[in-house]
Amino acid sequence: MREYPTPLVEAKTTRNPGASPVARLNAVAPKPAFVGDLQALISAAGSANMRDCQAVYVAMWYAIIGTDAVNTQERRKAVRPAHLERLEKLLDEGRLLLAGPFPAIDAEDPGPAGFTGSLIIAEFEDIDAARRWANDDPYVGAGVYRDVSVQPFRKVLP
């Protein structure tokens, strides 16, 4: 089981802890886990009835919007592998909803027109953790992004 930096889901049984599905869930995941792993943990423990839980702490999704500075396409290309490595880590942890750039023109491949920024929607403990993560992005350090905004995001569909 992965080790996570922050507790985002914690389940504690309130009745019959030795036999309830939630107790089995806790046995499978004694440490808190990210919401992205909750469904897998419930499957591993059986059909847990979440009404048996005292509390479920749910992480929030955050939209991270980076706006590119002018003429940064070469810098973007140079640091893209490091940028993608961080995103792949979020994906591996089940914390990435989506990520991608904004093409400067209405085309899948904008060619020399390049990109105007990026959108990342990921799960973090709180907005401060999301801001810290965003400010540590290689695109920020390389000056690709002229500014970065972080705001809570509520996924409704699908």
Q: Return the structural class.
A: alpha+beta
How many strand elements? 4
Mean pLDDT: 78
CATH architecture of the largest domain: 2-Layer Sandwich
What is the 3D shape? Answer: globular
Helix % is: 25-40%
The N- and C-terminal alpha carbons lie at a distance of: 28 Å
Radius of gyration: 19 Å
Total helical elements: 5
Q: What is the top-level CATH class of the largest domain? A: Alpha Beta
Query: Ranges with pLDDT <50 over ≥5 residues?
Result: 1-33
Q: Mind summarizing the main beta sheet?
A: 4 strands, antiparallel
- CATH third-level topology of the largest domain: Alpha-Beta Plaits
Listing every helix as H and every strand as E from the N terminus to the C terminus, the arrangement reads HHEHEEHHE
Largest sheet, spatial ordering of strands = 2-3-1-4
Beta-strand percentage range: 15-25%
Number of domains: 2
What would you give as the CATH superfamily of the largest domain? Answer: Dimeric alpha+beta barrel
Explain the layout of strands and helices:
Layout: H1 21-28, H2 38-45, E1 60-68, H3 73-92, E2 96-103, E3 115-124, H4 127-135, H5 138-141, E4 145-153
Antiparallel strand pairs: 1-3, 1-4, 2-3
Task: Please provide a written account of the structure.
Helix 1 (21-28) crosses helix 2. 31% of the residues lie in helices and 23% in strands. It has 158 residues and is of the alpha+beta class. It has helices spanning 21-28, 38-45, 73-92, 127-135, 138-141; strands spanning 60-68, 96-103, 115-124, 145-153. It has 2 domains: 1-58, no CATH class; 60-153, Dimeric alpha+beta barrel (Alpha-Beta Plaits). The protein contains 5 helices and 4 strands; from the N terminus they run H-H-E-H-E-E-H-H-E. It is globular, with a radius of gyration of 19 Å. The protein has a 4-stranded antiparallel sheet with strand order 2-3-1-4.
